[in-house]
């Protein structure tokens, strides 16, 4: 029996919840604090998640070291990512560090 996750516990930490082969396999809906890794853990391509800001826009960051800029998944669960995520949108900027499953907003956001 499927349980609804409307009350996904806020204390849950960010983590990689699934690995998919291609960006087209990434689910349309992502649960809060859950990221999807595209590729494999040894050959990661992308990390996809919904931004922790209020707009929850989708963020797709490159994990392939052959392409720059590239990010590095230090830990999958809870999630640690380097360097910081810096997304610039029209009228706003989302700049934060994902460390040990928590979001640390930088002062420039
Ligand atoms: Zn955002």
Please give a quick description of this structure:
By secondary structure, the chain is mainly beta. Helix content is 0%, strand content 46%.
Description:
The chain has 109 residues and is mainly beta. It has one domain (15-105). It contains no helices and 9 strands. It has a 4-stranded mixed beta sheet with strand order 1-2-3-4, with no helix packed on it. A 3-stranded antiparallel beta sheet has the order 7-8-9, with no helix packed on it. The model has no long low-confidence stretch (mean pLDDT 89). Zinc ion binds at residues 51, 53, 55, 57, 87, 94.
What is the residue-averaged pLDDT? 89
- Poorly predicted parts: none
Our Rg estimate from Cα atoms comes to 14 Å
- Count of separate structural domains: 1
Q: What is the 3D shape?
A: globular
Number of distinct beta strands: 9
Q: Give the termini separation.
A: 41 Å
Order of helices and strands: EEEEEEEEE
Query: Which class do the helix and strand fractions yield?
Result: mainly beta
Q: Ligands bound here?
A: zinc ion
**Order of strands side by side in the largest beta sheet?**
1-2-3-4
Helix content: under 10%
The total count of helices amounts to 0
Largest sheet: 4 strands, mixed
